[in-house]
Amino acid sequence: MDDEEARTRLLDAAEELFYAEGIQAVGMDRIRTASGVPLKRLYRLFPAKDALVAAYLERRDRRWLDSLRAATAGAADPVGAVFDWLAAWFTEPGFRGCAFLNAAGELGPGAPAVVRRHKAALRDLLAEVGGSAERAEHLLILVEGATAVASLSPGPDPAPAHRARELAGRLG
């Protein structure tokens, strides 16, 4: 196994475990076991858990935003497409809310900078689809609120995204 494969396996294991169980609940030994990467190589690639957490969130940030951008690109109603995308995400197996807000909640001020960058990038994307910075602020509250409500639902529940979409339509 070369370093690229080891890195991918480590990030896959970290994402699965950190997202499902929480960052603080999962130790590096669990990541090593789940990934099958030797401990020495793990620490060579990620010298500290903080580095692995940041890399996991960076990768998730790119994938999440790229997927949302693709869903809104060319849509007749790009704002509606945001909430349709959320509704689909809320029903994915293992949905546990926003990984970035979860990380901020767990790690507080020590959360990696990618958490704040992700939210700024989301706000920028919402400004693009919504037409203004002011509307983006309103949409961001609807997106984050719908995500929080969906994460607390007992099962897969797209309803918070549908309700948020309805409210977004009233923003004018």
TrEMBL record:
Please give the DNA-binding region boundaries: 27-46
Q: Which InterPro entries match?
A: Homeodomain-like_sf (IPR009057), HTH-type_TetR-like_transc_reg (IPR050109), HTH_TetR (IPR001647), Tet_transcr_reg_TetR-rel_C_sf (IPR036271)
> What are the UniProt keywords, alphabetically?
DNA-binding
Query: Basic and acidic residues composition bias: which ranges?
Result: 163-172
- What domain of life does the native source organism fall in? Bacteria
Q: Where is the HTH tetR-type domain?
A: 4-64
Region entry Disordered, spans: 152-172
Under the heading Pfam families, the entry gives: TetR_N
Recorded protein name is TetR/AcrR family transcriptional regulator
